[in-house]
Design goal:
This protein has 2 helices and no strands. With about 100 residues, it is mainly α. The protein starts with 5 loop residues before the first helix and ends in a 14-residue tail after the last helix.
């Protein structure tokens, strides 16, 4: 068997350091991805709830019928539908 030269030992050590560095990077990346997964799942749930709320409010607005006529007629329709006139709108309340 032949002895390893200093250059061979250096290359082996360099390759080992590179492999360890790469492994550490991969482990950190995995942890970041797993941590972000929880965040994205939470965001997805919030978006789903918002979409459901939007569909519900759209159905409520459609059930009220169209707004038409002069300003007095519109104000009467808002009062019947639970609206608040110029200061706000019942459909603007969040989920």
């Amino acid at each position: 068997m032949s002895k390893k030269s200093k250059q061979d030992v250096y290359c082996s050590n360099g390759a080992m350091r590179f492999a360890n560095t790469l492994k550490n990077l991969l482990v950190r990346s995995r942890h970041r991805l797993e941590g972000n997964s929880d965040h994205w799942q939470s965001l997805h749930l919030s978006l789903r709830e918002l979409a459901e709320w939007t569909v519900t409010k759209e159905a409520e607005l459609e059930a009220m019928g169209p707004v038409g006529g002069d300003e007095l007629a519109i104000r009467k329709q808002q009062v019947k539908g639970g609206g608040q006139g110029k200061k706000g709108n019942a459909a603007s309340s969040g989920p």
